[in-house]
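Appendix B. One record, verbatim.
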Amino acid sequence: MSPAKDALVIVGSCLVLGVASGILWWLLVDPPTFTKVGQGGSMGELQLGQRFDGDGWYAVIAAVAGLFTGALLTWWRSRDFVMTTMLLLLGAAVAASVMAAVGRLLGPGDPDVALAAAKLGEKVPEQLTVTVPATYLVWPIAVLIGALMVLWSQPGDVPRD
């Protein structure tokens, strides 16, 4: 296959996995809720602790999908390891951003708008977002680990006496 087809397959696969991962992320995360008080919203201790569940699930899903993607695509597209690795990194960046965008689009809307329309005491879910920016690095790191597992398992040239 040509390098253009390799790029299409690798980045396209990562894009599709990013969409599927975003849907899974949306399904697994129960967003914390604000309670309408006065002119704004308040969040209790349990809800504040729940704010990081979204990041945790994002990281777990991205790690599993990234390992799988990196290993499978490196094994399948092993004609040029350097190009495959670069394309995997590009694909992982695409997958990470698409996953976050899909989860945000499917999840609850802007809580400020919902709080403005809510009645006193009503619960309003927080928007599904990644709160810790370093979490986006899970995809690329997992893809590289998956690729390295395949690369290191390849038989090398054995020196002969």
